[in-house]
Amino acid sequence: MEIQITATKAEGAERRLQVAVPAARVAEARNKAAARVSKQVRIPGFRPGKAPAAMVKKQYAQAIDQEAVDQLLREAFEAVLAQEKLDLATQPHAHDVKFGEDESLSFELHCEVRPTIELAKLEGFRVMRPKSDVTDAMVQEQLDRLLEQRATWTPVEGKPAEGDLVTVTLATAEEDGTIPEGREYRLVMGAGQAITGIEELVLSMSIGETKEQPVKWPEDFPDESQRGKTKPVRATLTEIKKKSVPALDDAFAAEMGDFASLAALKETIEKDLAENLVREADAAARTQLLDEIVTANPFDLPPSWVKQMIQAYAEAYRIPQEEILKFGDEIKGMAERQVRRDLIIDTLAEKHALVATEADVDAKVAEVAGKRGEDVGKTYAALQKAGRLRELERSITEERVFAWLLERNTIEQA
């Protein structure tokens, strides 16, 4: 009555096992299932649990078979773990479940195992740290953004020009040539918010004017069904506004915060940019180092872990499903690399006792509270509510792992 298990595939992290459950074991499972079902159902003329077993089995055969199969699958799963000594990465799945002519049960069990990570080479790597110098152009770009945020829009007469904000009602002809009621849009001319033909039409108009003319849709228009088509468009221009940007001077700096002068604002911007660039350069160097270690220490990955990472990317960056399909290989490669990096960090952290402790997290929370100028308990509660404590713990662990790696490898400045 023993369950027979035969390994049929061992490729990478994937395993397949053929499982055979003898008829006697199946009959036993069915009898137990029938007894359980009998207590749960009501059959006219009999008290719960008192109906003849044959009657219960006949009327509830499908439910009994399903419960018996579920129980046998659980037993088979336990037998597989005991016999094959598998360190499973995910819950196994049963495929091709069927009863034989002799009432035995057979199925194929698909499972994935955790990788065995042998980090044989961890030292002697040399990677380049990108430049992190702040340029005048970077500072000016930030200033321009601040100016744009404080820009005002003033209504003007005449015809619109590039850079003007227009309010226009647009209507495109249907397939039968009729032009429906239009829809109002607010568009900045020259910003690529409308196709070229529509912009040209609006730029030729005056306030209160309505014009209608054929417009050709570009060949690279997102909606493939509209590419290259020429359709009548009716436009009514109702408002033109011209942008006015404030002067970049000490008065503007004072409006942006506690800055005594424009020079003080520039200094703060430069400092913030420098800190961000240093963080980005450090992150890039660390990623390079981890990728070198990944290449030097290959191991198999469970496919389901890669799929989970792809799903995490899709949710975090709001990637549509069609984009995932379009760039499938590229996204899969990114996901595989990230999973490998994470596994190497986890392996090193556990092996060398670098995992952040509760005391480490408490100290970090106290540091954050100090920077915010608030009570530690309040900061802890806020981080806990936002689900950030786990993230904080992970960042401490990663910092320790990278400190350990940097002692054994070389980071050169580009």
From TrEMBL:
Assigned GO CC terms: cytoplasm
Gene3D superfamilies tied to this protein: 3.10.50.40, Trigger factor ribosome-binding domain, Trigger factor, C-terminal domain
The UniProt catalytic activity note for this protein reads: [protein]-peptidylproline (omega=180) = [protein]-peptidylproline (omega=0)
Q: Where in the cell is it found?
A: Cytoplasm
Cell division is among the record's keywords = yes
The entry's keywords: Cell cycle, Cell division, Chaperone, Cytoplasm, Isomerase, Rotamase
What does the record give as EC number?
5.2.1.8
**Where is the region Disordered?**
213-232
Domain (PPIase FKBP-type): residue spans on this chain: 163-246
**Which example biological process does GO assign this protein?**
protein transport
Record-linked SUPFAM superfamilies: FKBP-like (SSF54534), Triger factor/SurA peptide-binding domain-like (SSF109998), Trigger factor ribosome-binding domain (SSF102735)
Q: What class of enzyme is it?
A: isomerase
Extent of Basic and acidic residues compositional bias: 213-227
| Recorded GO MF terms | peptidyl-prolyl cis-trans isomerase activity; protein folding chaperone; ribosome binding
Report whether Ribonucleoprotein shows up as a keyword of the record: no
Homology family? Belongs to the FKBP-type PPIase family. Tig subfamily.
Provide the domain comment: Consists of 3 domains; the N-terminus binds the ribosome, the middle domain has PPIase activity, while the C-terminus has intrinsic chaperone activity on its own.
* Record's function text: Involved in protein export. Acts as a chaperone by maintaining the newly synthesized protein in an open conformation. Functions as a peptidyl-prolyl cis-trans isomerase.
**PANTHER family to which the protein is assigned, alphabetical:** TRIGGER FACTOR CHAPERONE AND PEPTIDYL-PROLYL CIS/TRANS ISOMERASE, TRIGGER FACTOR-LIKE PROTEIN TIG, CHLOROPLASTIC
Q: Protein name, please?
A: Trigger factor
| Organism classification | Bacteria, Pseudomonadati, Gemmatimonadota, Gemmatimonadia, Gemmatimonadales
